[in-house]
Amino acid sequence: MIKIKFCGAAKSVTGSCYLIETSERKFLVDCGLFQGKESKTNQSNFPFNPEEIDFVILTHAHIDHSGRLPLLVKKGFKGSIFCTSATQDLAKIMLVDSGHIQEMDAINENKKRQRKGLPLIEPLYTAEDGDKVKDYLVAVPYNHVQRIDNDIYINLKDAGHLLGSSIVELFIKDDGVTKKIVFSGDLGNINIPIIKDYEYIDYADYLIIESTYGNRFHSIPSEVQSLYAIILNTIKNNGNVIIPSFAVGRTQEILYLLNKYIDIEKRKDFINIQIYLDSPLAEEATEIFKKHKECYDEEALNMLSFDNDVLEFKNLTFVKTKEESMELNNKSGVVIISSSGMCEAGRIKHHLKYNLWKKESAIVFVGYQAEGTLGRRILDGAKKVKIFGEEIAVNAKIINMPGLSGHADLQGLLKWYKGINKGVNKKVFITHGEIETAMNLKAILETVSSTSCVIPEYLEEYIL
After folding, report:
1. How far apart are the first and last CA of the chain?
2. Signal sequence: where (predicted)?
3. Tens digit of pLDDT for each residue in 354-411?
4. Where are the extended beta strands (E) located within 39-165?
């Protein structure tokens, strides 16, 4: 018997985690951090015993898929974590950074608790806990059969979402019959910068598919041109362009697009604009992107033939220290790319504090904003937001560019689903999306296929 339990990303977009049980094994696909309105779930006990988990398959390094791995290890997990080589490298730096954020959040919360006479709390995990995960990571090449034991093996295919992101083909022998369970992971936007488009699978008995943008359509070419225009117009009016960007993935894609515009098309107006990358994690991640050229698409490889560094250009400055970051608040007519992407932590909050109230400035969102996050509140039209306890008026231009997202839109999801050569035999589980988007994708998938589609509840179990 094979059983699956949805321990995260059920009717939501964060906390991806799936528990698979067989007669011999218990293992996870992803172990992500809950974010936004669901972040309190991180404080709850795992809905399983970490000591009993034999291994983990990690689809990619984004924190909503990997962010509770340090906690899993802290609670007694001793197995291997299988992922691609690029994911291995990214996870090493991201989980240490996540641990640091957990420590800072605990310090800030304890200051409030001390004033109120409340008991102090411990961080969910520390940077040291995050660093320990590296000892459990096992790299698996794309399209390579990795045998776990006599009854279980996996094959990872490129998901086109992030450097090293993967679709998981999971094969389990059950009562003498091999069943194929496929996890889409996060599927990438078509023609995303730098990395290759997603690969297709030939069939699945059961499919777990994401639905982040299951009710929207993107337009990458028009939004790229819009980004250039927004930057030029804002700088012309002496305003700042603030881009909250995920340190890993989105930031490198933005750098690639700006580099392409500046160094290839030779636009004189753009080459004199000062662009600052204010995220130590993003700088580390950029070096990893440079290392893993095996993940590059044909266009990026062609660019390398005449530009030996597609992620840097002469008017780009990497901001390293806190003091240098603070100095940016005194500048005007510049572009600042900073993390975190959902504006929940990191240096971006300071830049928003100093720019949201300025009518001449622009805040450009290039990634998904989960419910309950500061980024989502700004996008939803809040007139004022609280940052570091201070109420800040929202006067800047607020621009959303979902076409620059790393997630496939509805068209991309459908293209991938229709590309499954022999279809899905048994059932489709729709996850990693807010309920309205998941329901929309479900309705459309049921019109193009006779396979039953289900939107599972949090902690719901199914026998496969």
Report:
1. 7
2. none
3. 999 999 999 999 877 888 899 999 999 999 999 988 999 999 999 998 777 788 999 9
4. 55-57, 80-83, 137-139, 146-147, 152-158
Question: Domain 220-404, what architecture?
Answer: 3-Layer(aba) Sandwich (3.40)
With 0-12 / 13-18 / 19 or more C-beta atoms within 10 angstroms meaning exposed / middle / buried, residue 387 is: middle
Instruction: Supply 18's token pair.
Output: 């799936």
DSSP of 253-269? HHHHHHHIIIIIT--HH
Output the pLDDT for position 57: 98
**Distance, CA of 262 to CA of 280 (rounded, Å):** 23
Dihedrals phi, psi of 112, to nearest 5 degrees: -65, -40
pLDDT for res 134? 98
Choose which CATH entry (3.40.50.150, 3.90.1140.10, 3.30.70.890, 3.60.15.10) describes domain 3-216+406-463: 3.60.15.10
Query: Which amino acid, residue 449?
Result: S
Looking at the chain, the domain(s) classified CATH 3.60.15.10 span 3-216+406-463
Asked whether 90 and 249 are in contact (CB, 8 A), the reply is no
Alpha-carbon distances of 370 from 7, 183, 187, 302, 430, rounded to whole Å: 18, 21, 17, 35, 17
For residue 391, with 0-12 CB atoms within 10 Å meaning exposed, 13-18 middle and 19 or more buried, which class applies? exposed
Where are the CATH 3.40.50.10890 domain residues in the chain? 220-404
Q: What are phi and psi of 371, to 5 degrees?
A: -55, 140
